[in-house]
Amino acid sequence: MDTSQHTFTALFEQLGLASDKDAIEQFIRTHQLFSDEVPLHEASFWSESQSEFLREALTSDSDWAEVVDALNNSLHS
């Protein structure tokens, strides 16, 4: 069982996105979700597989849930 803490860098790598600090900051700046009514995994900018990964991470309370929740908070702020 993997008990390591996942980071934004690891999450972005898992999602197949650029994962350096500048790329992550740029992604968050340009993909803000202005309505709390839009769940993170339903945002239009995710591919089907990315969306499924994010949904599963939260609904199954996987070891990714904490960092996915942090991303959700960052995109909804």
UniProtKB/TrEMBL annotation:
InterPro entries: DUF2789. It comes from the Bacteria. Pfam families: DUF2789. This is DUF2789 domain-containing protein.
